[in-house]
Amino acid sequence: MGLNRRDFLKTLGVAGGTLVGADAFASTGKADGEAVEFKSILVDITRCEGCQGCEIACAEANGLPEPEDYPEVGVQRALTPERLTVINAYDTSKGEVYVKRSCMHCNQPACASACLTKAMYKTKEGPVIWRESKCMGCRYCMMSCPFDVPTFEWNDPNPKINKCQMCFESLAEGEWPACVEYCPNEALVFGTRRELLAEAHRRIAMEPEVYYNHVYGEDEAGGTGVLYLSPVPFEEVGFKTDLDKKPYPELTKGFLYSVSSIFVLWPAMLLGLHQANNGKDESAEIEQVSDEEVDNG
């Protein structure tokens, strides 16, 4: 594994293969003063061979350990603080299928709505990111996420919330998410959400015998930034298919009013402690992401 394996993946034609996608689905940011279209990733499960190239690239890009286990039918490999994307294998009506899972980067994320300090934040470009300097450790983002994505470093004395951030800093420099860049089979395509939805529906129309007639993420939880095509119904590959089509912030806003008083008072106390501890430093802190109103497009 390691660099040799990544070099091997590149040799398979990764760079050349993804450049085709670049021409067809390049991001289309608007001019200054206008809305910026959300960046998205289309995951075509029919093209995934479970090579774990995306996992390896993600680990290297984020300074995390490379995976030491492999996709295996019957074994659910979970997202963890040291694994921001994961591939699992499923035995389906069309044989063995591999599925990449990570943060869904919801259009209107419940995690960001539940966060009292804007530590979990929906950027105007689309990725949902976590900002350590603003986090007070309440973990409401974990409780509110309909996809059970954010993870917490329970055994770390200085714990963090970890999840895929769609390589947001790299996107700002015009690069692609690491997982997309190193997928040898073009199972991952990067572009604007509008373009990728059109491409997903085009593939379904062109090859109805190959694809199940649904784009997962088009409407689920109000729409997501990671979209999926599948050869089989999504319940066969472990997806939640009973999610509301309305944005989940509408549900999380009422959360604090539906539980006992401790859940109402505890966040306020944590927020006060957070502001007391960090107030003096925040004026000198250079924000990498502005707090401007997010266009939920």
Structure notes:
By secondary structure, the chain is of the alpha+beta class. It is built from 10 helices and 9 strands. It has a 3-stranded mixed beta sheet with strand order 8-1-9. A two-stranded antiparallel ribbon has the order 2-3. A two-stranded antiparallel ribbon has the order 4-5. The chain starts with a helix and ends in a 15-residue tail after the last helix.
SSE map:
Layout: H1 3-11, H2 14-25, E1 39-44, H3 53-61, E2 86-92, E3 95-101, H4 110-114, E4 120-122, E5 128-130, H5 140-144, E6 151-152, E7 161-162, H6 168-172, H7 178-181, E8 188-192, H8 193-206, E9 226-229, H9 249-252, H10 261-282
Parallel strand pairs: 1-9
Antiparallel strand pairs: 1-8, 2-3, 4-5, 6-7
Question: Which range best describes the helical content: under 10%, 10-25%, 25-40%, 40-55%, 55-70% or over 70%?
Answer: 25-40%
Q: Which spans of ≥5 residues are poorly predicted at pLDDT below 50?
A: 1-33, 279-297
Mean pLDDT rating: 81
User: How many domains is the backbone divided into?
Assistant: 1
CATH architecture: 2-Layer Sandwich
Shape: globular
Strand order across the largest sheet: 8-1-9
Structural class: alpha+beta
Q: What is the H-and-E element order?
A: HHEHEEHEEHEEHHEHEHH
CATH fold-level name: Alpha-Beta Plaits
| Biggest sheet record | 3 strands, mixed
Total DSSP helices: 10
The CATH class name reads Alpha Beta
